[in-house]
Every structure is written in structure tokens, then in C-alpha cells.
Write a structure and sequence with these properties.
about 270 residues; alpha+beta; Phosphoenolpyruvate Carboxykinase, domain 3; 2 domains; 8-stranded mixed beta sheet; 5-stranded mixed β-barrel; 5 helices; about 25% helix
Length: about 270
């Protein structure tokens, strides 16, 4: 009698962030549970997915998430490589693979990179910014580490819905842009609400002695936006998409410089 290979159980879940739904397949039930905990509110076993990844788990290596990252296009496939993971994606075929140890940091990085690639072609982007909904409108607060993204999030009034304190998901629509909640967290370590609203304004953050809002020129708005957009790919065409996305955004959405002190009264100026 020929030897029969043991059947391997397969598990699957969909992580839907904004308009991008990604199915992850794994043979490890513990990893599936990790995904459900890490992305609570953004997961579904039944949802339709635009993209699908097979996740191959390997023992941890000495290389951590601080290793050099490479995102390159090779023969029509994106290759994402860092010390703690290697992933490939056929963007046209909407299928890929991920090889990593069973931890949430690697999969988090892969998802962020994939979102930037998908959104760039659609005119959207991920942005280093806090974002919140108030009175049915979304407001983005962009800045480098220490600029005040977490602070402005903590100061938000009770009638504001926090979408994220770290990385905003912005999608382009015919009539403007929509900001979605994300599970990509900053210092608050709190997942954003899985909801969305039209973007009313982008604020470039600065801390100072008083609360004030100042308009910025189109060129300064573009530079400020580009400086905070997440982008990893080493590909000229994708660079052009990202640059065009930034130019289109500042052409259609008001951009301001928001200088503030850590006081909840700053929200009286917003919206």
C-alpha cells in the first residue's frame, strides 16, 4: 500500500481595511487566533477578498523587524523582503505568499506595504497621521514622530470617532477622498473604529505656545503630504502614481498648518 500523506488542516480569514480586503491562509490555528486578536473588528472568515496570501510559518530567526526593507518589482511580481519576512505578490493575479515567523509584527508590515501598492494605483495612500470623524467629516492630522498625533487623539472630544492615532487609510472617490479606520496603532495601542467618512481637511501638526490654524501654499501642502505618506517601493512607475496622488489630493482638499498646545480647546478650531 502506498503511504498516504497526512492531511493538513487549512484555516482562512479575511482582513478588510478600508476598501482593501485580503485573505490569509494558514495551517496554524494559533496563528489564526493571533490574527483575530490583532485585527479585532477588521476580520471575517466569510468576506469576499480582493487579494489572497498563503502564509508559511517558519521558526524565528535572529533578524528582527528593524532590518533593511526591500520592495521591488521583479518579472511582474512584487517581492517584499526584510529580516523577519519575505513575501511575494502578483498584483494582477491578486495572489501572493508570505514566509515569516508566527508574530504580529511581520504580518502587520506586509499588510501596510500591500495597501500602499494597491492604493497608489487607485490614487489613494496610507499616511502617517491621526484621523478622526466629527460631525460626519473626517480630519487628518499628519506629522513625524513627536509632532503630536497621539496627543491630538487623546484630546479629541467625546463626539469624535477615532479612526487611528498613527496610520490613516485614504481612498480616492469621484467626488473627493474618504478616510477609513485602521488597526495600525501608535502609542495609544488602540485600534481605530472600523468606519469611514469624507475627508474635510488635512492638518500638518506643529507644537507651539498657542493654538492657531494657518493656510499653507499648494507647494508646501504637497511637500508636507509627501513627507508623511507611507511608500516603500523601488519602482519608477509607482513613484509617479504616488506623486500624482499627492498632487491631486492637495488640489481638492484644504491643507492647513495646525500649531497647538496640549489642551483640549484646540478641537474648538477643528471642523
Amino acid at each position: 500500500m502506498p503511504e498516504v500523506a497526512p492531511q493538513i488542516d487549512r484555516y482562512s480569514t479575511v482582513i478588510a481595511i478600508g476598501a482593501v480586503a485580503i485573505r490569509l491562509n494558514t495551517s496554524d490555528s494559533d496563528f489564526l487566533e493571533l490574527l483575530h486578536q490583532r485585527y479585532a473588528g477588521y476580520v471575517s472568515a466569510e468576506a469576499q477578498a480582493e487579494f489572497e496570501f498563503d502564509v508559511d510559518l517558519v521558526p524565528p530567526t535572529f533578524c528582527g523587524p528593524d532590518g533593511d526593507l526591500s520592495v521591488t518589482l521583479r518579472s511582474g511580481r512584487w517581492v517584499l523582503d526584510r529580516g523577519d519576512f519575505r513575501a511575494e505578490l502578483d498584483l494582477a493575479g491578486r495572489h501572493g505568499s508570505i514566509r515569516q515567523s508566527p508574530n504580529p509584527y511581520s504580518i502587520d508590515a506586509v499588510l501596510r506595504i500591500v495597501h500602499t501598492l494597491v492604493l497608489a494605483k487607485q490614487g489613494g495612500f496610507l499616511l502617517h497621521s491621526a484621523s478622526a470623524i466629527r460631525n460626519g467629516k473626517a480630519f487628518l492630522f499628519a506629522g513625524v514622530s513627536g509632532a503630536g498625533k497621539t496627543t491630538i487623539s487623546r484630546l479629541a472630544p467625546k463626539d469624535a470617532t477615532l479612526l487611528t492615532d498613527e496610520i490613516s487609510h485614504v481612498s480616492k472617490r469621484d467626488n473627493g477622498y474618504v478616510a477609513f479606520g485602521t488597526p495600525f496603532t501608535g502609542e495609544l495601542a488602540k485600534l481605530g473604529q472600523n468606519t469611514s467618512a469624507p475627508v474635510a481637511a488635512l492638518y500638518l501638526l506643529a507644537q507651539g505656545p498657542a493654538n492657531r490654524i494657518e493656510p499653507v501654499s499648494a507647494s508646501d501642502a504637497g511637500r508636507g503630504l509627501l513627507a508623511n505618506m507611507l511608500f516603500f517601493a523601488q519602482d519608477q512607475e509607482t513613484v509617479r502614481w504616488v506623486f500624482k496622488a499627492a498632487c491631486d489630493f492637495v488640489d481638492r482638499v484644504p491643507v492647513y498648518k495646525l500649531t497647538f498646545v496640549p489642551d483640549a480647546r484646540v478641537w474648538e478650531l477643528i471642523g
